[in-house]
Amino acid sequence: MADHDGEGAAGLESVSDPVVSEVSAPAAIVPEGGGAPSNGRRPKWMVPVVVAVVVVVVVVAGLVGWRVVESRRHGAALDSCRRAVKTLKGKTGSDRLAQYREAAGIKSDQVKDAKTVVAMARSVKDAEGIKEPTIRCKASMPTGELNAAADQAGKIDGKFAALSKAAKAVTASRDAKALDDARAALDGKKGEAARLLADSDGKVADNATRDTLQQAIDQAGQAKGDKAKAYRDAADALQAAIDRVNASVQAKSQADQQAAAQAAQAQKQPAQRQGTTRHRQTSSGNGRRGSTQSRRPAYRPSGNRGSGGGGGGGSSQAPAAPSAPQGGNGGIDWDQWIDQHKTPSSCHAGEFCPIG
Question: Which key words tag this protein in UniProt (predicted)?
Fold first, then answer.
């Protein structure tokens, strides 16, 4: 029994020896292909290569990152510049510039508040004149230039914003004064129309013109609003109606003058005819009187006619011419006298014969 235990112990010792030896000496690593074992060592050139590769990767990654960031910055600058220019163009378009120029041309006597004209002039000076700015935003421009252009556009936009505000103020002041003036002018025109309507009663050639004037007066009283044009239009309508009434008054006045002249001429014609008749009668009477006077015989004084110293011859005395009445208005009726003293048919020679 004891021998058996001893043999077993001896067997155990023989078995344990190889195991201990195997543990204490590690197994060698045999590379594929039958090379010599490496014993766990790396080549010396591997570390620098790895470091270089890492550096390159980091540099490339940095460059790529920087390019991405720069591209984003450039895009943001380009977008900002374009937005600034677009905003500026909203205040400097052709229509807006025309409005600014119109406002700059308004004078102090055209506005209700002269201070607005002064403010407008100052704004124009600050904006360095009313002209369209030339700011460009191109993708080819560097980021810095794009940012600078955006800043410049913003500054100019602020100046034109002030200019726009000043232009609105001066324009509103001008419109306010124009509205006041238009209302005052319409009130004056309504008064003129009312006076003419009263004074022209019965003095127009066409009474319809007065009816039109009354309608214009009624319509003018309905004018309202904050636009001067409405009051100007009403005043123009009143003026047109006033002109028609005045023309009708003048037409009736001319017609009345012509009628009066014709009536006066008609009254003068009978008097002229009577005067012509008297003139003809007077001329006819003077003609007969002259003819009668031309037939008067020459006056011969009485005297003795006969043979001188003869006893047989008697003396005959010519009839004496009648004497004109003294102080009378009429003359001698010579025709009657001649008829009474006609030469008798038995007038003998040697005797006195009256004038026949």
Answer: Membrane, Transmembrane, Transmembrane helix
